[in-house]
Amino acid sequence: MKKSLTRQQYLDLYYYMRLNRAVEDTMVKLFRQNKIVGGLYSSLGQEGISVGTAYALEKKDWLAPMIRNIGALLVKGVPPRDVFMQHMAKYDSPTKGKDGTSHFGDLENLHIVSPISMLGDLIPVMTGVAMAGRYLGQKIVAMTWIGDGGSSTGVFHEGLNFAATQKAPFVLILENNQWAYSTPVKRQVPLENLADRAKAYGIDSYIVDGNDVVAVYTTAKEAVDRARAGEGPILIEAKSFRRLGHAQHDPAEYVPKEMRKYWEARDPIALYEKFLTSEKLLDAKSKKEMEDKIDALLTKERDFAENSPMPPAEFAEHGVYCTGDDCHKIEPKWVRPKSEAMPPKSSVTAVWKVEGFGEGQGSAGGIAPIHFGDTTPTEGHPESASPAAPKGPAKKAGKKPAAPVAVASSRKARR
Ligand SMILES: Cc1ncc(C[n+]2csc(CCOP(=O)(O)OP(=O)(O)O)c2C)c(N)n1
Ligand SMILES: [Mg+2]
Questions:
Q1: SS3 62
Q2: Ligand with the closest atom to the CA of 176
Q3: Is any ligand 1 atom within 6 A of the Cβ of residue 147?
Q4: What are the pLDDT digits (tens) for 104-130?
Q5: How far is the CA of 304 from the centre of ligand 2 (A)?
Q6: How many angstroms does the Cα of residue 1 sit away from the middle of ligand 1?
Q7: Closest among 230, 206, 240, 201 to 220, alpha carbons compared
Q8: Measured from the CB, is residue 44 less than 6 Å from ligand 1?
Q9: Which ligand sits closest to the CA of 152?
Q10: What value does the mean pLDDT of the chain take?
Q11: Residue 117 CB less than 6 A away from ligand 1
């Protein structure tokens, strides 16, 4: 761990990691009392990733958490009571008991996009958020997380390619915790480092020890600064370990004992405490004060959540089908203050400029030309072969498509 942060930053990282763990410990108790509705996922041992990465964001930035990123929600400002109530499906929860786990967002104040269960789908969504921010001249960065397993979905690759092509101010944290359910990473990806996936999209990547919160934060901060400066998306692979099963129901007996032992000895909070103590940033007294503060906060938050009512039965039929204005007024919530959406903060024409990428409009003013080698350039474009060049994809005269039988047999021959 390098020493380069302010004292307050060091202590903030410690506070949020401890809070993250304490919130999840409280929820395990609630789960065992049958008060949690649905599954409960743990980030035990991965707190340094959620906390260190989210701490690198500014207030105006956007994030979308996955199931193991409660720590990121806490850093962004979500009160623990909302996390408890959401998991307990209480009426005062952000979704009023209509959804569980951390499936809630806050588009207006905290800039949180609700998680999407389909792994990888948040990547194109957050790329869109990043692009919208750029269009509005807001200089925001969007961040989301993906697991080692999730990095093998199609949409991971489509999304990252899209983000790279658009040079979106987007930072993707790949949490390599060695397991996707019961599948070890080595049996699903033929790569030593998942960060290498970035090479396919021509973007930069970092590899960081996910159990070293200072390393995570400094790496994330550099990536966020670079993305904000217009360098395009960045992928960070944070190596860590899923200390518990996929969720509470999974005893994870498939995990080799030595592997578990190795990572348990590298607990991110214990490692960080050691560092803080040796650097004289934390002593027994200040540690106890922080623990008392967290205890008092969570007692209050848990009481509030437990005393919140379940939704009334008749509420189940509300909000299922939108009936128009008597359901809710349909107006876009993303409308920004006029000054923010007008020059000099943004352009009024739907044209964006990205260094090294070009413009979102054909340079001749027409539709952006696409060159796939055998596609004739659009009429009027400087590269156009002739003024009479046909619009749309060129037809290859006299070239018949190969017969399906021939394709099948030639593939067979190659095998
Ligand atoms: C597209 C898609 N396929 C499968 C699932 C089911 N599923 C949920 S979590 C999970 C394992 C994810 O593993 P990983 O991405 O490594 O994340 P981790 O649980 O380790 O944090 C799977 C297969 C899903 N939600 N979405
Ligand atoms: Mg995993």
A1: strand
A2: 2
A3: yes
A4: 999 989 999 999 999 999 999 999 999
A5: 33
A6: 31
A7: 206
A8: no
A9: 1
A10: 84
A11: yes
Per-residue pLDDT for 191 more than 50? yes
Mean pLDDT for the stretch of residues 37-57: 97
Report the pLDDT averaged over residues 260-275: 97
Q: Is the pLDDT of residue 23 over 60?
A: yes
- Rounded Cα distance between 286 and 349, Å, is 55
CA distances from 294 to 212, 301, 338 (A): 22, 10, 41
Sign of CA dihedral 85, 89, 90, 91: positive
Ligand 1 atom closest to 67 (CA):
21
Which atom in ligand 1 lies closest to the alpha carbon of residue 155? 1
Do the beta carbons of residue 20 and residue 234 sit within 8 Å? no
Average pLDDT over residues 46-55: 98
CB atoms within 10 A of CB 396: 9
177 lines ligand 1 (CB under 6 A): yes
Does the bond joining 115 to the residue before it have cis omega, within 30 degrees of 0?
Answer: no
Following DSSP, what letter does each residue of 174-194 receive, concatenated? EEE-SEETTEEGGGT---S-G
Q: What is the DSSP string of 74-134?
A: HHHT--HHHHHHHHTT-TTSTTTTSS-TT---BTTTT-BPPP-SSTTTHHHHHHHHHHHHH
43 CA from centroid of ligand 2 (Å): 11
Asked whether 119 lines ligand 1 (CB < 6 A), one says yes
The reported pLDDT for the residue numbered 137 is 79
182 within ligand 1 shell (Cβ under 6 A): no
Residue owning tokens 């106890």: 288
CB 63 within 8 A of CB 72: yes
- Pick the atom of ligand 1 nearest to 119's CA: 26
Q: Ligand 1 within 6 A of 149 CB?
A: yes
Q: What is the pLDDT of residue 275?
A: 97
Is residue 409's pLDDT more than 50? Answer: no
Distance 177 CA to ligand 2 centre (A): 5
> How do beta strands 170-176 and 204-209 pair?
unpaired
pTM of the full structure:
0.82
Alpha carbon of 119 to ligand 1 centroid (Å): 6
For 280-334, give the DSSP string. TS--HHHHHHHHHHHHHHHHHHHHHHHHSPPPPGGGGGTTSS--STTT-----TT
Closest residue by Cα to atom 12, ligand 1, is: 180
Nearest residue to 9 (alpha-carbon basis) of 289, 272, 357 = 272
